[in-house]
Design goal:
Pathway: Cell wall biogenesis; peptidoglycan biosynthesis. By secondary structure, this protein is α+β, with helices and mostly antiparallel strands. 21% of the residues lie in helices and 18% in strands. Strands 3-2-1-9-4 form a 5-stranded mixed beta sheet, sandwiched between helices. It is globular, with a radius of gyration of 27 Å.
């Protein structure tokens, strides 16, 4: 793979940051253990993510206040006091503080989302995020569990609200069937292209639970099949897309695992065939992988 000077790389990174597109290290000159060259660009923008057609945000829309129809009247000046008032000391009964108003049972630190019950159910199935009650009512415990889930999978904002993006991610993870992956005796990296999830198995046992990923967008579909990792680099430079690819593990032509260079849940952009990972997952996949590790991809990403 051709490498350029440090100054050119910095300038290229600035361009890629402005454009906001992920990239893969396409190197048709060398493909030991792979199946051939990269994917031909079509130029069609990505419109889907995961198992849905859109990647909605969990952010609540801000209400728009209407402009006043009449000009408010100017405040009247208060007349000067002409009499002297005598302050009466409070009676003993007045000194007693009135009891605080009761707090409604469903008032919590987090807003309740439109997918409250569904998200509670998926988080209960996944486990590991705290106690949730599957009743469709937001509680402080539910709020904390949803926030923890959102922080783990970089869902923004991580405000504890069970919105459409949180629902989409939770559903994809909870419904991933790890038995679909034909794992070998060693380390096997598994990718469910349909659900846009990935996990790692060793000796038939899951050693890294399913997490979110983003594969090739329309025109750059990541192909299903069985491959082997044939090259690794902690920080690879992509010549065609001029972007750094952290924790690079190539397994098919110019396609490989690497840390995402953009917001993983943004549906308007996507990879050029690579398997994008969140930072924590890219580090973990790097620690588990080695040249020769098996890679199995099943299904097909919707819209590709």
């Amino acid at each position: 793979m051709r490498h350029t000077g440090f100054t050119i790389r910095i300038a290229a990174l600035a361009v890629v940051t402005l454009v906001g597109a992920g990239g893969c290290a396409l190197d048709p000159q060398a493909d030991p253990g792979g199946t051939g060259g990269g994917l031909a660009p079509v130029g069609k923008a990505e419109q889907v993510t995961g198992a849905s057609d859109v990647s909605p945000s969990d952010q609540l829309a801000r209400p728009t206040s209407a402009a006043p129809t009449t000009k408010p009247a100017a405040p009247r000046k208060e007349a000067a006091a002409t009499t002297t008032r005598t302050k009466t000391p409070p009676t003993p009964s007045q000194k007693r503080r009135a009891p605080a108003a009761p707090v409604p049972a469903n008032k919590t630190r987090c807003a309740q989302g439109e997918y409250q019950r569904e998200v509670e159910g998926y988080l209960a199935r996944l486990g590991g995020f705290g106690t949730v009650t599957v009743d469709g009512r937001q509680t402080d415990a539910d709020c904390a569990a949803i926030k923890k889930f959102q922080q783990r999978y970089d869902i923004r904002p991580a405000a504890g609200r069970a919105g459409p993006l949180t629902y989409d991610v939770a559903k994809r993870l909870a419904t991933t069937d790890t038995s679909r992956c034909d794992a070998g005796s060693g380390v096997t990296f598994c990718v469910d292209l349909t659900r846009q999830t990935t996990w790692v198995m060793k000796g038939g046992t899951v050693v890294a639970r399913p997490t979110v990923t983003r594969t090739g967008m329309a025109g750059y579909a990541t192909p299903a099949g069985t491959y082997k990792i044939n090259f690794r680099n902690l920080k690879e430079w992509s010549d065609p897309y001029e972007v750094w690819l952290p924790y690079w593990q190539r397994f098919n032509g110019g396609i490989g695992f690497h840390e995402t260079t953009t917001y993983l849940h943004n549906a308007s952009i996507g990879s050029h065939g690579c398997v994008n990972l969140l930072h924590a997952d890219a580090v973990r996949w790097w620690e588990l992988g080695s040249v020769g590790s098996r890679v199995v991809l099943v299904g097909r990403r919707p819209g590709t």
